[in-house]
Amino acid sequence: MDSIYRRLGLSRNTVGWWLYNRRSANIEIDKRCPRCDRPRRKIDDFPSYAYLLGQYLGDGHLLMTQRVPLLTVVCDVRYPGLIHEVAYAMEACGARTVGFQERDGCMGVRTHWMHWPCLIPQHGRGVKHRRKIELVDWQQEVVEDQPERFLRGLFHSDGSRFTNRVVRNGKIYGYPRYTFVNESGDIMRMCQQSLDRLDVKWRMARHNTLSVARKEAVARLDSFVGPKW
Q1: 91: how many CB neighbours lie within 10 A of its CB?
Q2: If you average pLDDT over every residue of the chain, what do you get?
Q3: Would you say residue 49 has pLDDT above 90?
Q4: CATH: 1.20.1250.20, 3.30.450.40, 3.10.28.10, 3.40.50.2000. Which one for 46-222?
């Protein structure tokens, strides 16, 4: 081996790696990331990923720091169950630890991991509605397989369920209604397509506001979304 590395002008370690397939610990692939594993595999937990993707598209942000990327989903402190569900989804998708940062009535659910950019390729500079948001093929497969969980994530972030009140003939009537509000036309289209896939009727109240008000449609959303808790 000495004559080889001298003749080629290479280090002993390089030649040793070629000859004996030596590997150091710092280049081992993180088996938690299905996109970096070889061969690539599907997401281990489709439901959790679909939910986390919906939450990210609504109230999430991926910060590309100089060291390890930081994924944050901002939740309302009034809904501890929702905060727990986001944290669980992060861990199910590969995070080792999840932290919490409370600020002005909001709770940031945060986790560092080198491979978040692999799982969330929609990250980028600036707000989401000012850039193109598209799902890659494997993400589309998850969303089509788990439309309920994806919609649950969207409505838990930028959606709401409330009692809409109207006055008819001097009487006040109330009925439940869902709305989803998002400035991104791309994200709104994803919500519409998932609702269509489940045959849930919707209409656009404004350019950035989707409404689900029909009794049977609200009942369908209640079966897998329901009020925030």
Answers
A1: 14
A2: 88
A3: yes
A4: 3.10.28.10
